[in-house]
Design brief:
Layout: E1 7-8, E2 12-13, H1 14-19, E3 34-39, H2 43-56, E4 60-65, H3 70-74, H4 85-96, E5 103-107, H5 117-131, E6 135-139, H6 150-153, H7 161-170, E7 175-179, H8 185-191, E8 197-199, H9 202-206, H10 214-217, H11 228-234, H12 236-244, H13 249-253, H14 266-276, H15 284-303
Parallel strand pairs: 1-3, 2-3, 3-4, 4-5, 5-6, 6-7, 7-8
Function: Catalyzes the synthesis of 5,6-dihydrouridine (D), a modified base found in the D-loop of most tRNAs, via the reduction of the C5-C6 double bond in target uridines. Specifically modifies U20 and U20a in tRNAs.
Enzyme class: oxidoreductase
Keywords: Flavoprotein, FMN, NADP, Oxidoreductase, RNA-binding, tRNA processing, tRNA-binding
Length: about 300
């Protein structure tokens, strides 16, 4: 859908990478540029993982200082680290010392009662000056470390985009991207008047079709427009490769269920995949049949 936008992995803990049995660093060449988002608070472990990631070809390392879940807090990483700016700075410096790719931070605007603008500025200043961090992605909500679920923490604390704009104004030498509640490319364009970048999370997952116009609208790439069916069929070689490894089709298709959001045939697409992709032996034919459902629905609408 886009060859220009920077893709971030979901957060992977240092413990999983160092001690886990699976390959937590695998990705495909088509995903470049891609950043590994790490969860951890031990500088040596983070440095080890950052070095491994650079060797595997990642384009950036990102330290997550924004996730508020209980599991994350118990492991001493995520949003609770906002209260320990000096430790975050040590973590960033440890990673920067062993890799040549960028090391960045994703954070909130505050935690619990520590949500003043001064607290946020102090955190950014310490991490930038003592850790050498040059790029921050700011989720424009504070996080409540207790009392709210991770889902509620993404929705209940109010958004404060102007505070993030002010942060960029007060730290003009730093690269800053804004995150939180951004649903359209038009909204992204508005934010880019004040910020260096925009991060889109849930909307890109629930409505991935929005990414079809990113290269043209935001990066000025003059290329023929691609349609959602074009994208799906371009994935067939990847899907077939994963199926030969024993991956279930449903583990792939569940991530593209929303690609036809608000398009005639979207419901038929979702239903066919949901009912058939999990079955033993399900393959490309199931996806192609689902695509045909979309085509039929659109033809019926034209005839009507």
């Amino acid at each position: 859908m886009t060859g220009q936008a920077l893709l971030y992995t979901e957060m992977v803990t240092t413990g999983a990478i160092i001690h886990g049995k699976g390959d937590y660093l695998g990705f495909g060449d088509a995903e470049h540029p891609v950043a590994l988002q790490l969860g951890g608070s031990h500088p040596a472990d983070l440095a080890q993982c950052a070095k491994l990631a650079e060797e595997r070809g990642y384009d950036e390392i990102n330290l997550n200082v924004g996730c508020p879940s209980d599991r994350v807090q118990n492991g001493m990483f995520g949003a609770c680290l906002m209260a320990q700016a000096s430790l975050v700075a040590d973590c960033i410096k440890a990673m920067r010392d062993v890799v040549s790719i960028p090391v960045t931070v994703k954070t909130r605007i505050g935690i619990d009662e520590q949500d003043s603008y001064e607290f946020l500025c102090d955190f950014v200043q310490q991490v930038a000056e003592n850790g050498g961090c040059e790029t921050f992605i700011i989720h424009a909500r504070k996080a409540w470390l207790s009392g709210l679920s991770p889902k509620e923490n993404r929705e209940i604390p109010p958004l404060d985009h102007p505070r993030v704009y002010q942060l960029k104004k007060d730290f003009p030498h730093l690269t800053m991207a804004i995150n939180g509640g951004i649903k359209t490319l038009e909204e992204a364009k508005t934010h880019l008047k004040y910020m260096d970048g925009v991060m889109v999370g849930r909307e890109a997952y629930q409505n991935p079709g929005m990414l079809l116009d990113v290269d043209h609208e935001l990066f000025g790439i003059d290329a023929p427009p691609r349609t959602a069916p074009d994208i799906i069929r371009a994935m067939y070689p990847y899907i077939e490769m994963e199926l030969t490894k024993g991956t279930y089709l449903g583990h792939i298709t569940r991530h593209i269920l929303g690609i036809f959001q608000s398009v005639p045939g979207a419901r038929q697409w979702r239903r066919h995949l949901s009912e058939n992709a999990h079955k033993p032996g399900a393959g490309i034919d199931v996806v192609e049949q689902a695509l045909q459902r979309v085509t039929q629905a659109q033809r019926a609408l034209i005839q009507a």
